[in-house]
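Dear Dr. L.,

I hope this message finds you well. Following up on our conversation about the binding site, I have prepared a predicted three-dimensional model of the protein together with zinc ion. For your records, I am including the exact sequence and ligand specification that went into the calculation, followed by the structure tokens. Please feel free to forward this to your student if that is useful.
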Amino acid sequence: MASQIDLLSALQEIDQRLQSKGLALQELRQQTTALFSEIQAKEREADTRQQRLLQLETNRRAAELQLRTEEEKIKEKRVRLNRIRNERELQALRREIDAMKETNSKLEEDALQLLEEIEKEKTALSQTQEQVEELKGKIDAEAARVDAQIATIQEELCMEQGGREDLASQIDPGQRTRYEQLFAKRGGWAIVEIRASTCQGCHMHIPPHMGNQILSNAQQNTGVIFHCPHCGRILVWKIEQSPPPQD
Ligand SMILES: [Zn+2]
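The resulting structure of the complex is given below.
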């Protein structure tokens, strides 16, 4: 018959698998969350570009309106030019018209510049919109892949849970509670080996007499459980598992 410590060790193996599968589930769920926030960020970017485009178009309409108004004014002044006979007045009006033409050519430049900016913004906007569509297409495939992985892990978790219940029912309730508290408190390592008189959980020295007791306990299968005097973990002489992490 398996000793309590063997059962606890087996329970720990199951619990460690449950824990890592639980973490894997969390990570999988975060993967789709990350993709969703990437889409949201791109959508916000598209909105900003759309707003900017609207503003640029408003500015362009205003610039063109101003340009037409100024052109009308020049036309009126040109008509007046034909009626003036006084040379000084004529020259003053000509200078005025020249200055207005200069201002207008600047306005034309501004309007052209706005048109260029509008074209650029339109290109950038359609690129961003394409990226949004691309990401949305990706998320369907990604969500399906992640859902399938989640389903597999949940099925495995279910089976492990069943195995765990069978095993746990064979363990003394007091020991089981103590083990579960240690497992939660000590990073998933409630049971550790003692090696070279050292607890492999906290790496502290174990008094030689205690080491000897643990060894003879293992040899004679007495079922006595020893706890590390430093970290409280259950000490076993030798169990086959990967080395525990440092505290
Ligand atoms: Zn320890």
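In brief: Helices lie at 4-83, 87-168, 173-185, 208-220.

With kind regards,
A. P.
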